[in-house]
Design a protein that fits this description.
The strands form 2 sheets. Strands 3-4-2-5-6-1-7 form a 7-stranded parallel β-sheet, with helices on both faces. It has a 6-stranded parallel β-sheet with strand order 8-13-12-9-11-10, sandwiched between helices. It has 2 domains: 204 residues, P-loop containing nucleotide triphosphate hydrolases (Rossmann fold); 175 residues, P-loop containing nucleotide triphosphate hydrolases (Rossmann fold, 3-Layer(aba) Sandwich), CATH 3.40.50. Helix 3 crosses helix 4. By secondary structure, it is α/β, with parallel strands linked by helices. The C terminus is likely disordered. Strand 10, helix 13 and strand 11 form a beta-alpha-beta unit. The structure holds adenosine monophosphate (AMP). The site of adenosine monophosphate (AMP) has 15 residues, from helix 3.
């Protein structure tokens, strides 16, 4: 299948060719003709499969027929994070470069003025995060009465982030007679609910297993107690081919700590997480994309929408709290047709999660093993001598009222010690006798750390 067979506008095809794409990816081949028909579509596709172009290209083909009046918005794409919004906008600009369309993006954390100006001029396509869009709309900016198309991108993530009330408010202000496209990595009950609320007889488009990053990414699982993680990371970064590395931390503070420690080991790294300003995040992303720094450390939420080609390795420094995030994380490497590598550090408390992950991914994962060439004994001695703990403990027992991400944390249990292999098996200095970072592995016997020599 070629792009020329999909019925896209010629100007769009030309722009696509200039991007260097020859053939559509499976989600593009499946979704583009259906979106062009004008009905509602629910697309289930993992990250990195080319789903942005899957909705953008037919959308631009539709929009090419008209032009926004001043103040009016013709198509709205809602995205969960600023990074994703910016990336979608960049893609839209690239694909629409031969069309006289107005494109704008609005998201929080930056000044409103330029965004208001763009809305006043009118936009054929507006990309927005829900919070800022509501702010601006409630001040009377943007006329959505003639909106033709609504796209909810990464709808599953928007739900996880608690955007449902905002999305409902936004949708209430849109015409009923519109085309609604929804993209999600998973088809959960919640997503089905969203579909019935916002869509009319949607067609389901789902890409096959071929584009699942869990299949295109070479995955490894290395045993690693908390206090050796930093040393293992430094060791891996010395290996050949580790040219562009995205490291995932469970927490914002953890991400900063990883950067600090890497700096101490002579590796420049930058972090992106929710405590960073938009311009700091953009700068970090740009430095990473341009290759000025080779290590970017991210939390899950901040990482959504990181669209950087050529990431050679993804490192799960901390096992994801939410299993679906594993697929999103490793999908940052091996994007589109390229292959990639992922390495997951496993403490013994992560083991039960690995079994669940296998069920989610639907295929056996490689066995956990010791990292080749890494001297665990020497590293343990070094960690003992180190001035501060490197542990990023998995939180426990947070009680009711937390979101799904948090509910997935395991209950606290008294720990018998030993298998973390660390000097400080409990919490950090501020948490004396905090009961430790976890619990024993199955049967209390699974153990890797200093005792395994
Ligand atoms: P996405 O899943 O939309 O984040 O896209 C993943 C990556 O694939 C991005 O870097 C796109 O630029 C790239 N891409 C999208 N469509 C194609 C295509 N048809 N051929 C090659 N690369 C593509």
């Amino acid at each position: 299948m070629r792009f020329s067979e999909l019925g896209l506008h010629e100007a769009v095809q030309k722009a696509v060719a200039e991007q260097g794409y020859t053939d559509p990816t499976p989600i593009q081949a499946a979704a583009i003709p259906v979106v062009l028909e004008g009905g509602d579509v629910i697309g289930i596709a993992q990250t990195g499969t080319g789903k942005t172009a899957a909705f953008t290209l037919p959308l631009l083909t539709r929009l090419a027929k008209g032009q926004a009046a001043p103040g009016a918005v013709r198509a709205l794409v809602l995205a969960p994070t600023r990074e994703l919004a910016v990336q979608i906008e960049e893609n839209v600009r690239a694909y629409s470069r031969h069309l006289p369309l107005r494109v704008a993006v609005v998201f929080g954390g930056v000044g409103e003025r330029p965004q208001i100006t763009a809305l006043r001029q009118g936009c054929d396509l507006l990309v927005a995060t829900p919070g800022r869009l509501l702010d601006l709309a409630s001040q009377g900016h943007g006329d959505f009465r003639d909106l033709e198309v609504l796209v909810l991108d990464e709808a599953d993530r928007m739900l996880d982030m608690g955007f449902l009330p905002s999305i409902r408010r936004i949708v209430r202000g849109l015409p009923r007679d519109r085309q609604t496209l929804m993209f999600s990595a998973t088809l959960s009950k919640e997503i089905e609910q969203l579909t019935s609320e916002f869509q009319r007889s949607p067609r389901l488009v789902q890409v096959g297993r071929r584009s699942n990053p869990a299949e295109t990414v070479e995955q490894a699982f290395y045993e690693c107690p908390h206090n050796l993680k930093q040393l293992l990371l430094a060791h891996l970064l010395q290996q050949p081919g580790w040219d562009s590395v995205l490291v995932f931390s469970r927490t914002k503070h953890g991400a900063d700590r990883i950067c600090r420690k890497l700096a101490g080991a002579g590796v420049e790294a930058l972090a992106i997480h929710a405590n960073r300003s938009q311009s700091q995040r953009q700068r970090a992303l740009e430095s990473f994309r341009s290759g000025r720094i080779r290590v970017l450390v991210a939390t899950d939420i901040a990482s959504r929408g990181i669209d950087v080609d050529g990431i050679t390795h993804v490192v799960n420094f901390d096992f994801p709290d939410q299993l679906e995030d594993y697929v999103h994380r490793i999908g940052r490497t091996g994007r589109a047709q390229a292959t990639g590598n992922s390495v997951t550090f496993l403490t013994s408390e992560d083991l039960p999660e690995l079994r669940k992950l296998e069920r989610l991914v639907g295929k056996p994962l490689p066995k956990a093993c010791r990292a080749p060439g890494f001297d665990y004994e020497a590293a343990t001695k070094q960690a003992f001598a180190a001035p501060a703990p490197d542990a990023a403990p998995r939180p426990h027992n947070r009680g009711p009222g937390h979101d799904r991400r948090q509910r997935e944390s395991r209950p606290q249990a008294p720990r018998p010690g030993a298998w973390h292999g660390g000097r400080r098996e409990g919490g950090g200095p501020g948490q004396p006798g905090s009961g430790g970072q976890g619990r024993p592995g199955p049967g209390g016997k699974r153990s890797w750390g200093r005792n395994r020599g």
